[in-house]
Amino acid sequence: MSTQRKPDERISLLQGTLDVLILRILLFGKQHGQGIARAIHESSDRALLVDHGSLYPALQRLERKRWIEADWGISSNNRKARFYRLTRSGRKQLSRETEKWHLLVEAMGRVLSTDPTRS
Length: 119
What we know:
Layout: E1 2-3, H1 17-26, E2 31-32, H2 33-43, E3 48-49, H3 52-64, E4 68-74, E5 80-86, H4 88-113
Antiparallel strand pairs: 1-3, 2-5, 4-5
Helix pairs in contact: 1-2
């Protein structure tokens, strides 16, 4: 996963970030791979760009964990595509991961807002 910033300004994402983003997108309904990538890109105000080299291994990993399921269908441009959907266990995992991310963001905010000159 990358961003559209200059190469030296790109945000390095923590492992597992793409998984939770995919689960979140699928919360709103089934979607094919390119649609998932587009939804992440658009919902991040175009800050995150998911490349195929990251997306499809993540989809396979989530499918192996049974957090998502896939069926073949026809995309809006009339092409055969796999459509992914969130499973019940995927919804539970999304809830757990979302809670972890909120805790991480709060903790990072506390650390980053701390004045290092004060003890």
